[in-house]
């Protein structure tokens, strides 16, 4: 068997499974060697005469990947001006997300689902969904990491009725949906975590603790200094913006590092995919039905037929839309402005896209309640513009859906 003298493998790939083919094919007895940080990716296979290994990105591109960068290295060395406090905070956030990724993938997480009786029903006037055990554990993991960072004054979570004041003098406010899409875990459907980060409003420091915690958490999305989501799927991907582009980092299971794999993501100006629950078609307003009917027949401004792709996991649907273009949407008052709509709108805008409630820019909406809900449309700028032109796209009548 004639083997190539150069083996390319998807970046980064240094796990035992990645090298299994090589070892079997050439009958080598070797252990994989973790690639050193900030150096050309190699493995022990490259040490054999006449044999080399180089890493490549999906699609075969090697440009920019001869040196791979971790999330913390990227923040510390790219000159994007985030400051040491935010670098330290994101180091603790990534640690929390690694723990959640492990929890979601664990064969023992089903036992948590059997503890549902420990969770009381939540909802009604608070606007919150009833939490699941995995949501609660994820929430505790994030809260613990934010406490340990020493950099967060307030955490507001979709799982809590009110914000938690963590430490006086912490420079940041963090809003989070700890485990979006958790009802899908038993079916191994992707889930995610969403973060938004604001500066603490120092002008409120004189107020009582509960009041200043609430007001700090209700800042307009235009004041976000960073936002991120983490996708727990076939890969664990952390996608973040710090106000200077949108960048994605993939968790290297062999080293435990989030590695920059998608620098400066740019959403296509227009896609060919829409993501929405078509089963609710007859509950939609006339404008939304006309828009969907038009684009899937290829009769819209873009003369190609659109396809439907719907996972029913916001982070997963949004991640695909960010990479491929199109629109991810929920037309009814369902998604949270503070925890979901604002952070994801900041991310998509930094990638060249748009976030809308069907009429106006999401980031321009001033939150008035912690668990405030609204329709959400995220995606390519030309697709969002066309959708908004149909005007009546917000579903105001909500008959309620049993799942």
Number of strands: 15
Shape: globular
CATH C-level category of the largest domain = Alpha Beta
Mean pLDDT: 83
> Span between N and C termini?
55 Å
Radius of gyration from the alpha-carbon trace, in angstroms:
22 Å
Organism: Eucalyptus grandis (Flooded gum)
InterPro entries: FBPase_C_dom (IPR044015), FBPase_class-1 (IPR000146), FBPase_N (IPR033391), FBPtase (IPR028343)
Enzyme class: hydrolase
GO biological process, one term: gluconeogenesis
Task: Summarize the helices and strands and which ones pair or pack.
Elements: E1 6-10, H1 16-26, E2 52-56, H2 71-77, H3 84-105, H4 110-113, H5 133-149, E3 152-157, E4 164-165, E5 172-180, E6 191-199, H6 209-217, E7 226-232, E8 236-241, E9 246-252, E10 257-262, E11 273-275, H7 286-296, E12 307-308, H8 314-324, E13 327-336, H9 337-350, E14 354-356, E15 373-379, H10 381-388
Parallel strand pairs: 1-2, 3-5, 11-12, 11-13
Antiparallel strand pairs: 3-4, 5-6, 6-7, 7-8, 8-9, 9-10, 13-15, 14-15
Helix pairs in contact: 2-3, 3-5
């Amino acid at each position: 068997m004639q083997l190539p003298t150069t083996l390319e493998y998807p970046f980064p790939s240094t796990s035992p499974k990645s090298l299994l083919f090589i070892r079997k094919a050439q009958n080598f007895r070797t252990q994989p060697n973790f690639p050193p940080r900030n150096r050309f990716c190699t493995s022990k296979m490259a040490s054999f005469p006449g044999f080399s290994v180089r890493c490549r990105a999906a699609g075969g591109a090697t440009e920019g990947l001869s040196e791979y960068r971790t999330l913390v290295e990227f923040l510390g060395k790219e000159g994007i001006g985030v400051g040491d406090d935010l670098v330290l905070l994101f180091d603790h956030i990534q640690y929390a997300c690694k723990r959640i990724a492990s929890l979601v993938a664990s064969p023992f997480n089903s036992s948590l689902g059997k503890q549902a009786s420990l969770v009381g029903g939540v909802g009604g006037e608070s606007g919150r969904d009833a939490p699941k055990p995995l949501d609660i554990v994820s929430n505790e993991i994030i809260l613990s990491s934010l406490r340990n960072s020493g950099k967060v004054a307030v955490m507001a979570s979709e799982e809590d009725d009110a914000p938690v004041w963590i430490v006086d003098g912490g420079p940041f406010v963090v809003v989070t949906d700890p485990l979006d899409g958790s009802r899908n875990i038993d079916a191994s459907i992707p889930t995610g975590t969403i973060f938004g980060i604001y500066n603490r409003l120092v002008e409120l420091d004189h107020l009582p603790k509960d009041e200043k915690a609430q007001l700090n958490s209700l800042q307009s999305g235009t004041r976000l200094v960073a936002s991120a989501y983490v996708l727990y799927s076939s890969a664990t991907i952390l996608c973040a913006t710090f106000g200077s582009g949108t960048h994605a980092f993939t968790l290297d299971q062999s080293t435990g590092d989030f590695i920059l794999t998608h620098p400066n993501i740019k959403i296509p100006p227009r896609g060919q995919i829409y993501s929405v629950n078509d089963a609710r078609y007859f509950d939609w307003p006339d404008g939304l039905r006309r828009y969907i009917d038009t684009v899937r027949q290829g009769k819209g401004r873009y003369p190609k037929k659109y396809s439907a792709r719907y996972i029913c996991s916001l982070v997963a649907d949004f991640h695909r839309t960010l990479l491929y273009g199109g629109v991810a949407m929920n037309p009814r008052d369902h998604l949270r402005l503070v925890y979901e709509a604002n952070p994801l709108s900041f991310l998509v805008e930094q990638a060249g896209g748009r976030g809308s409630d069907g009429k106006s820019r999401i980031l321009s909406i001033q939150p008035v309640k912690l668990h405030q809900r609204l329709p959400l449309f995220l995606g390519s700028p030309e697709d969002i513009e066309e959708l908004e032109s149909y005007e009546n796209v917000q579903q105001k009548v909500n008959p309620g859906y049993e799942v």
